[in-house]
Amino acid sequence: MAHKCSHQTxxxxxxxxxxxxxxxxxxxCAGLLIFVFIVLLIILLVWAILQPKKPRxxxxxxxxxxxxxxxPNVISTTVQVTINSRNPNSKxxxxxxxxxxxxxxxxxxxxxxxxxxxxYQGHKDVNIWSPFVYGTDxxxxxxxxxxxxxxxSNGAIYMIFKINxxxxxxxxxxxxxxxxxxVSCPAYIPIGNxxxxxxxxxxxxxxxxxxxxxVSV
Length: 217
Description:
Elements: H1 2-50, E1 56-71, E2 74-86, E3 93-105, E4 108-109, E5 114-116, E6 119-121, E7 126-129, E8 132-139, H2 142-154, E9 157-171, E10 174-175, E11 179-189, E12 199-201, E13 204-212, E14 214-216
Antiparallel strand pairs: 1-2, 1-13, 2-7, 2-8, 3-4, 3-5, 3-6, 3-9, 9-10, 9-11, 11-14, 12-13
């Protein structure tokens, strides 16, 4: 009889031990979930209070080295552009990652991608980039080659310089995930116009533009 009671007591103690262990695990999980919720809530509140603004871009100038139509469907281009980027946020930094610049004419890409090295932009900081965008014998729709020659004859061309890439926001020690960045800078260039305001720079002509760009993140 004593032996039987001993087995029952041991079984009861094992059950109590399992119950206590289960409760401890449940409390730890609940505590972890509450901690994660509080951290996320703080991040969201800080984000809402700071109200991050999109960086601002300005196309300052474009220097045309070559812009030729060798056939109705083939264009060769070499242009250096100066792009001003400003972070308008006073408490949020911006990481630029994988930025690529190219030129488009009539919604068709006419140059290769030119990469801008990754850079961190601090609060209210300004960065200025002067990449070369170029393309040799780039195939285009035949009507675009004819249109470009016609525009040059008329004294002006309308191009768009685009930047695609990714950005991350930095608030204190917190760094967000990556967001897609799309920048579109229109450029009305009076090339071929005898009354243009271009500045001769060696074999190229530099045009002052100071054109605001459209930015989406």
